Every structure is written in structure tokens, then in C-alpha cells.
Amino acid sequence: MSKIPGTPLFSVKLCASAALVFVTGFFQPDCAHAHRMLMQEEGSGVLFVYYEGRVPAAEVAVTLLDEQDQVLLQGQTNAEGRFYFDPRLGAGVARADDGRGHRVVYDLEESVLEEGFLFIGDEIPLALRVALGTGMIFLLYGALYAWGTRSRRKKNAHS
Amino acid sequence: MHIPDGILPLPVTLGGYAACAAAVFFCLHRINMRPDPQADIPKAALLTAAFFAASLIHIPIPPASVHLMLSGLLGVLLGFFAIPAILIGLFFQAAMFGHGGLTTLGINGVIIGFPAMAAHYMFRLGTLGQQGPKQTAAFAFLAGSLAIMLSVLLFSLLLVTAVPADLGAAVEKTAIVMIIAAHVPLALIEGAITAMIATFLLRVSPRVLHGV
After folding, report:
1. Nearest CA to A38 among A102, A101, A100, A87?
2. Alpha-carbon dihedral of residues B140, B143, B148, B152, nearest 10 degrees?
3. Rounded to the nearest 5°, which phi and psi values hold at A82?
């Protein structure tokens, strides 16, 4: 492929190369991850707050609540994304908020992260979830296309 | 910029759904007015899948990090299909990646979909009557960048006005400034991607670019 006259800025080769880099970059495990904030307990009285990919979430506000949603303790994670507290406080829930629209809630009694009810879970490998989501998107559009074609045929048949 | 479940007050989530429903109704009405409403469905399917997967591309911009959105590209290439496509993409992002949520689907659709339509109108008005590669590249770049910056502004506005934060006002203000600053490089990257793809399509298949 050579540079096409009339396209001083972008050639077919450049676009194809950029597309190849883009697609290759997607399959690099370090690059390909979503951007949720997560929390886990690391022993008694230690919470680790991180973004997906195990990136520590520093200076994130953490609030400990009891069963009646009363605030027991407020503070921030340190530079390593860790928050230390006295387990004798009797906190039931830990909530982290980074002020950028990321918030995570961790049930300290059940030792379970509260996830959105639509999310199918991290247990399924990411590549499989991508394939499943992409497949369902194509299936949905295919169904829409088929339905639309059938409706048009009926409409044309009646007219 | 995807807002998860459990953050926004109920009136805001309902308002988001209402705004999105109105936008989808308008878009579907405009699509149905075309001679062949289904002609762009295959293109919409491909771009929805790209939008769905693009949020996985993580770009570290210290001290924050951002992810690709491709909302400007969807606006430029899909036109009135953009908002329904983005809503479908957001739904599957919430289901498969935990990115966003079901109760916040409407408001996330507003934050990402409305700027995509703004990008569409900017590109259409900018290239009206002039379909040369330079104009196409320039307005596609502007459209791609505009979509990101408008989304950031809407998101920031929502954070300030509607999200009850556990942080102090000063810390939250810093966080919001960081979000805006972190998305400026992303806006340039997405503008470049949109410009490259638009120029490429102009050369190899102009109907794909101007069929909307």
C-alpha cells in the first residue's frame, strides 16, 4: 500500500498500522482492564483499596459504618492504598469514595464486596466476558435487523 | 466516567432515564424517517462492540488514569444511531465488566450519548458541502475531542451538584480538576483516532462516512 494522493496527513498504511497497534494493545494484559474501584481486607483492621489491575487508590476517603448506618470512623487511605482501623470499633460496612465517581462498599461482617446486581462477576475470565458481550451485541442487532426486514416485507405485501 | 450504582439520588437517576428515553425516542423517529432504516444496523453493531470493548483500554496519565470511550467516533459515524448504540454498550459494560450500573444507565447515557450527538452535529455542519480530506480530518478531530470534553464537563457538574461525597469540598475540588486535566490528553487521542478513521473512510468508502 502506498500513500494515496490527496491525503497529506493520513495514508492507508498509517491507518492500518495504527489499527494494528490499537488491536495489539488491547490484547496486552496490562492495558486491558476496566476501571472499577475495589476493596479487600488484608488481615484484621487493614483495608486495601485499589483500582482494577491492583493499582493502589491513594488518598481515598474511607468511612466505617455500623449496622444502623451511623458513621464510626472517617479517614483516608495512604499512598499504598491502605486504611488502618481498630477492629474493636465493630464496624459492619466500609465505604470508599475517591471523589471521581468511584465508590465501593465492603461488608466487613461477611467479608464480601457489594457489587452491582447486574454484574456477572470477576470469576469469569475477562476475555470470555468480552467475547460474551460482543456476541450478545451482534445477536441483538441481528435480531433487530431480522425483525425490521420482516416488518418491511409484511408492510410491502399489504400495500 | 461511568457512574456506578448506589451513588446518585433517586430523582437524578429517574431524570437521567427520562432524558435518555426522550433522546432515544427522537433518534428512533429520525431513523424511521429514512428510506431504509436498517441500512446502518451492521455498522451500528460493529461500533457498539468497539465502544463496549474500548473501555478496557486503560491509559495511565499520572496521577490519574483514563479509558477510551470512542463516543465522538460513534457520533460522527452513526449519527442518530449513536445514542441507542451507546446505551446498549453501557448496559453490556455494566453486565460484563461492572463498569457503570443499571440504575445509572440513563444518566451515563446522558453523559456519554448527548456529547456524541453534539459531535455528530459539529461534524455534519463542518463538512456540509465540503467533503475534502482536510475539512473531514479537522472536523472529525474537533468532533472526537469535543465529545470527550463535554462528557467530562457533564460528569464534573453531576459530581458537584448531585453526588454526596465523603470527601471535604477542597479535596473534591482537587479531584474534579484532576479529572478534567487527565481527560485533555484523552480528548486529543480520541480526536486523532476519529480524524484518522474518518479520513480513511472518506478515501475508501465515503458512503459509510456520509450515509448518516
Report:
1. A102
2. 160
3. -105, 145
Strands A61-65, A103-107: pairing is unpaired
Q: With CB atoms and an 8 Å threshold, state whether A140 touches B41.
A: no
Residues of A within 8 A of B42 (CB-CB) are 141, 145
Classify B17 in phi/psi space as left (phi over 0), alpha (psi -120 to 50) or beta. Answer: alpha
Segments making up each domain of chain B, as ranges? 10-210
- DSSP class of residue B205? -
Distance CA B156, CA B182 (A): 13
Residues 30-49 of A with CB under 8 A from B: 31-36
**Which helix (H) or strand (E) element contains residue B29?**
helix B10-32
> CA gyration radius for chain A?
24
Kindly report the CA angle at B45 between B44 and B50, in degrees rounded to 5? 95
Which residue of chain B has the CA closest to A96? Answer: B166
**Cell output for B122:** 459539529
The CATH number of B10-210, from 3.30.160.20, 1.20.190.50, 3.30.710.10, 1.10.1760.20, is 1.10.1760.20
- Is the pTM above the cut of 0.90? no
pLDDT tens by residue, B44-89: 999 999 999 988 887 776 656 678 899 999 999 999 999 999 999 9
* Residue-wise pLDDT tens digits, B173-185: 777 888 888 889 8
What single DSSP character describes residue A88?
G
* Separation between Cα atoms, residue A5 and residue A50, nearest integer Å: 50
Q: Do A116 and B137 touch (CB under 8 A)?
A: no
Residue A122 neighbours by CB under 8 Å, 6+ apart: B98
The reply to whether omega before B115 is within 30° of 0 (cis) is: no
- Chain A from 75 to 94: CB within 8 A of any B CB: none
